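Sequence in, structure out.
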Amino acid sequence: MGRTEKLTGAAQNGWILRGPVLIWRSETRPRDVRENGRMTDTTITMYGAEWCGDCRRTKKQLDELGIDYRYVDLEADPAAADVARDISGRTNIPVVVYPDATHHVEPSNADVESKLRELSLI
């Protein structure tokens, strides 16, 4: 819990394996674009559900910090749960994917804040 993990292999390149089929998931993996050593694409994607207390807490934190992020509601889009699981290797939520292709699963507020500072987003 709260561990930052690097996406590897096909997942890092925006592909996921569904049975014998490799599927492109470009909108689930933010680009890591740097200009003068700083990220220019600061897209964060969070997979969560309204019934999840940790998801509500993490959304509130990102909102209060003024962080732009893409929220994927797993209740509204149940198929996205497979994408979140492919990224994290787990079924726990929230899954927060950062612009540098790392992610947190069920992060604490301190974990998220530390990562945002590391990425110079706050």
